[in-house]
Structures are given as C-alpha cells and as structure tokens.
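Appendix B.2, paired examples.
Example (i):
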Amino acid sequence: MRVLPIAVAVAAAALTLTACDSGGDSSGESKASPDSAAKTTSANCKIDQVGIQVGPANAAPAAGDTGNVPVTLTNNGAECTLEGFPGIAVQGGSTTTDVPEQEAATPPKLTLAKDGTATFTITYVRGEAGDGKSLDATTLKISLPGATDTQSFKWSYGPLAGKSDSGDLDASVSPFQTAGD
C-alpha cells in the first residue's frame, strides 16, 4: 500500500520543520523585527513624495454651471497614509480663498503603496468675471492633511462663484478615494 510511505514522508517533513530554529522564542507569538516594523508602519504622505495631476476637467462652460476638476496623486516614495481631506485654496490677484470640504462626507484612511494612486474632486459653480461676488482665480494650491506645504497649479476653469462674496465660494472638495486597480 502507498498510504504508509506517504504518511511517513509527511511525518518526516513535519518533524524536520519543527526542528528548525528561526531565532524566535517558543511562546507562539510572532515578534516583528525593527526592520519589519519600519516596513509596515506608514507615515502621513508628504507633498514632496507625491506626483499630482490636475484634470482633465469637466469645466463649467458658463456662469451658473457646475464643473468638476479631478486631481490624482501618485505616491513616488515609501508607503504612506492619507487621512482627512486635501487642503485646497484658490487665488486670484491678492485674494486667496479656501475651498470647503464636501458636507456629510466621512473621509476614509487610505494607505498608498509606492506607485499607488488616490484621487479627489473639486466641484465648483462657475461665476461671472468682475461681478464682485466671484473669484477670478488663476492659481490652485493643494496641500495634504496635516501639512502646510503646498503645490501650486494654474487654474484655467474660469471664475468661481461666491455664495455671498468671493470669500464664500460655491465649491467643495471631496475626500480622497483609492484610484486605479
């Protein structure tokens, strides 16, 4: 019968594996080495470690129309996390106005591996240039949660409408979402 030789081979393999000493203790608990702990602990993503692509946008063609500007971040460094909302500000002349976070949105905590991507969307209502209520924006500034450093990009999607004035924009930014596969 073949059952006996197979059973003997399996038992021998099991005894051989238990005889190996991996340098650990016999408590049955796995212990992470300092090197493995550094690899599994991820810090907040830094603005200088991510590549940022703004657009292509679904721009609002006329005053009163709604536009969406997607922004994609690619992690070019070590694994890191994004928790919260991106910091978004738009600037026109000497006026800089923050874009508020999307209401009722709960941002997930995302872990980005090297070359991992995340996205968020800026939604805005196009204003009318020079109406005193809109911000004639020319620059988009992006920061990551918990950081003050920004990257600046050209804003080419027209003026942003203000709800009451140019300091109270009719716009919002969504939380981060995982992008890609």
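Example (ii):
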Amino acid sequence: MSQGWLMFMVWNFDPILISFLKFNIHWYGVLFASAIFIGFQIMKRFYINERVSLESLDALLIYCVVGIVVGARLGHCIFYDPQYYFTNILRIFAIWEGGLASHGGGIGVAAAVFFYAKKYKVKLFWIVDRLTIPTALFGFFVRIANFLNSEILGKPSNEPWAIVFKRIDDIPRHPVQLYESLAYCFVLILLSVLYRFIRMKEQSGILLGVFLCAIFSARFLLEFFKEKQAVYESELILTTGQMLSIPFLLVGIFLLILPKVKRGIKM
C-alpha cells in the first residue's frame, strides 16, 4: 500500500486558521464556539416560542459550557489514558494540548443541567428534551473539526472514498469523522421533525430517548471503523467508546419504553 495512496484523496489541511506572533486560532476552536453560539440561539428560539422567560437562559449557557469542557476533559483523562494522568495530575489542566471525550462531555452536561434545573426551578425533562437538538448540532460541528485536525482516525481502507491524512501517515483510511458527522446531521434533522410534530407536554423524555438511542447506536457501530484510541484497548473486545456508549443507549431505550409501561399500568 506504499504507493497506493496516490489513488486516494490526500488530506493535508492546516488546523490553524490564524497565526499572529505566538497566538494561534484553530479551526477546532472556531467550530466549537460556533456550535455553542448557534445552539444558544436555538434554545433562545424554543424559550421565545414556548413563552418561557429568558431570564435564566444565559445561566444555562454557562452551566452547559462548563459541563462540556470539564466533563469532556476529565472523561478523556479517566477513560482513555488514566495511568498517565493519574501519575501526572497537573497535565489534566493542560487542555490546550488536546484531549476531550464526548462521553465525558455528555456526563458533564447532564450533571450541569441537573443542577441548573434544580436552582432555577425548571422542569428537567423540559430542558433536556430541547437541548438534544443543539447537542446533535454540536456533535456534527465537533466531528467536522476532528476531520480538519486529522484526528480520531479510521482504520486503513481500500474503498474509493478512503482518505490519506498526510499529516499522520500515507495510509488511506475510512474518513470516520465524516461518517459520524453525517450520522449526527441525520439525528439533528430527525429530532427537529419530531419536535414539530409530537406533543411535547405529553411526551416528556421522548426526544431525549430518541437522541440517546440514535446517537449512541451510531457511535457504537462506527467504532468498528476507528483506530483504537485508549492505550489499553488492545486487550479488549470492544473499544472504550463502545463500552461507554452502552449505558447511554440503555437509558435511551428505557425512556422510550417508559410511556408504554405507564399506559399498561393505567389500563
């Protein structure tokens, strides 16, 4: 396969958007911030359309951003390279070196929204159901950013759409970042349609259930196309990403079957 890469698309994108003196602005950061901004606007529209006070919306943004960053960073350190970070505790704070885990970010946001709902006396499922839509959008943006960064690599492939990530090596690989971003885009469209057509007040938790099932089913399946990321994964049948996806998927299934169980009890 040494010269085979000449038949495939070669990706050699510079992850730095702007460089001034020693200050660099990365595409990843721009897309991350853009996803947060657009997500905030989506939530603002939900608040306005459903006649909910905007007074605590800025607080929700702060809670979510802190939850994402802290959760994603700790998730990476604990789930993917615990031995290194437990022996180099201060490196946990070196977030500029990279290393964010989406499952940890999910846990962090869940915890943040729980405390937000408790403090501001907002119904928890009212918030999380609507947050699924900007969260799917966020996942789409982040995977595009991963592609621009030539990170989270796919396994070697001879498929005609395989891509050589020249900054890494000369091996054509599955562009798994694009697979995942397309999956999240589909979930975003699905959730947006469901939001418009289901009776949200009577179907509390349904959007969250659909989100968890769709996102983490896609994540579980696409892990088969990824190179292993955790340092200890060579000893495991499933990848770390797959094992972490299972609890989220089970919660999603539970949320989807819960209304049927309740109706069965009432009957």
